């Protein structure tokens, strides 16, 4: 549906006759004098002072191999099982092949609620995404994006949370909310560090 300044769009992807994906979006720009930012960026070290996120065998061949991720306020997988976390975890992420942080790039970086679920539970656990909604706030140049994961609840086999996405200069780029099926991971030895992936 096309409006004066905002258009609402729906995309349905099929494999043969089987519907596999539905995406709904509201797109546009409305000039306004109203502006503000009230979310608070967590106080974490800069990316160069953070340890790379260790990769596991299950990351092989996935988009994780294309990301450089650093643990800003999170535990490596070998510390699990361990005590429950606060429900908050954060990591710096960059995608070296992506020169511009687009809405599509933010949607990928915002897909980290399953990571936060393992951090919150103190277990080698995560999940499969049931939905992912991205709300874009600002677009500013930034090499790294801080994914500030906030897990709200895990109950009846499902987990719910959101990710605040921050530029290095403290600008809130957007927020991604997500629900997942919660699953335990198989214990796996590490393969390589994401920070060592070819850039």
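^ Assign residues to that structure.
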């Amino acid at each position: 549906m096309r409006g004066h300044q905002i258009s609402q769009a729906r995309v349905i992807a099929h494999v043969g006759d089987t519907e596999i994906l539905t995406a709904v979006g509201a797109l546009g720009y409305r000039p306004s004098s109203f502006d503000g930012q009230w979310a608070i960026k967590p106080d974490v070290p800069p990316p160069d002072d953070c340890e790379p996120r260790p990769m596991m065998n299950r990351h092989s061949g996935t988009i994780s191999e294309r990301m450089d991720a650093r643990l800003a306020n999170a535990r490596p997988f070998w510390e699990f099982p361990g005590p429950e976390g606060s429900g908050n975890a954060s990591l710096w992420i960059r995608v070296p092949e992506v020169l511009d942080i687009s809405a599509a790039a933010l949607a990928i970086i915002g897909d980290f609620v399953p990571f936060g679920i393992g951090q919150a539970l103190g277990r080698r656990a995560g999940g499969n995404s049931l939905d992912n909604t991205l709300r874009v706030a600002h677009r500013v140049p930034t090499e790294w994006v801080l994914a500030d994961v906030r897990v709200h609840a895990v109950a009846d086999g499902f987990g719910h949370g959101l990710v605040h996405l921050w530029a290095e200069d403290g600008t809130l780029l957007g927020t991604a909310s997500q629900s997942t099926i919660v699953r335990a991971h198989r214990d796996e030895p590490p393969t390589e560090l994401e920070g060592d992936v070819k850039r």
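The helical segments are 103-109, 113-121.
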